[in-house]
Amino acid sequence: MKIVVMLKTLLFNLWRGPVTRKYPYEERPPFPGERGVILMPDESKCIYCGICARKCPSNALAVTRTPEKEWKYERFRCILCGACVEACPKKCLEFGDRKK
Length: 100
What we know:
- Strand 2 and strand 3 form a beta hairpin.
- The strands form two sheets. The chain has a two-stranded antiparallel sheet.
- 23% of the residues lie in helices and 14% in strands.
- The protein is an alpha+beta fold.
- It has a single domain (2-96), classed as Alpha-Beta Plaits (2-Layer Sandwich).
């Protein structure tokens, strides 16, 4: 009896096709509501106050004001919670597409 069930499953899956995606050749469409990555499209709006870095729970952001103004984002530490985007007083941070 179990052999019949197994053969039925085998025959069904032979003509079904693969369930995986050929990744480098076929890219998956983004999920609805996917956030992507944190972007700063216009860096001239940033006042380098550091509020975004202080609000980040995973310490993925670092803001240096002296001697030169610098903003660093560690993409792999980011948990995409959006705390930095909400906390930015100049609204110069935003969620963006992964390809940018």
